[in-house]
Amino acid sequence: MADFDIANVIEEDLIALDLDVRDKEAMLGHLTDLLEDRGKLSDRQAFYNDVMWREGEGQTGIGMGVAIPHGKSSGVTKTSLAIGVAREPIAWESLDGEPVRIVILFAVTEGDSDVIHLKLLQHVAMLLAHESFVDLLHAATSPHQILELLESNPESYDD
């Protein structure tokens, strides 16, 4: 298997800043639209339904204002990440009980091996484990900055 590279699943067009969204559904709907607009989905509704089903299964808010919802769905044509940053914090079930501003939505094809899915989750989780990384993520002012942060090496952050 080729080496995993997060650059293969993320692009600046899938990163939206300063979103005027009031709740989880609006945020997930907006990110789903981004994925559809960029040709990553074959069935928008099926993907959105899968994401909402997964949300009902457990918390995706990991703390520090970040959530990582995901949908493994037949409606996805290319495994991708879509990222939204809300203008104001929105209510979300999270481990620290706090609202979130940054949502990293994983869209995973059913055909993609669990290996890719797990490597993707692992890479993002390793980055998010560093408070300094999360601070930089919250401070980012452009899609390009967020892209560079996500492509960075988790080992380069030292808390």
Report on this model:
- This protein is α/β, with parallel strands linked by helices and 159 residues long.
- The chain is built from five helices and six strands; from the N terminus they run E-H-H-E-E-E-E-E-H-H-H.
- Strands 1, 2, 3, 4, 5 and 6 form a six-stranded mixed β-sheet that branches.
- The longest helix is centred in the last third of the chain and has 15 residues, at 114-128.
- Helix 1 (24-37) runs antiparallel to helix 2.
- The model has no long low-confidence stretch (mean pLDDT 91).
- The radius of gyration is 14 Å and the shape is globular.
- A hairpin with a 2-residue loop joins strand 2 (61-63) and strand 3 (66-67).
Counting DSSP E segments of at least 2 residues, the number of strands comes to 6
Estimate the global geometry from the Cα principal axes: globular
Fraction of residues in helix: 25-40%
Poorly predicted regions are none
Fraction of residues in β-strands: 15-25%
Helix segment tally: 5
Order of helices and strands: EHHEEEEEHHH
Radius of gyration (CA) equals 14 Å
Main sheet attributes: strand count, strand direction, barrel closure: 6 strands, mixed
Overall structural class, as computed from helix and strand content, comes to alpha/beta
* Overall residue-averaged pLDDT value: 91
Tell me the distance between the termini: 33 Å
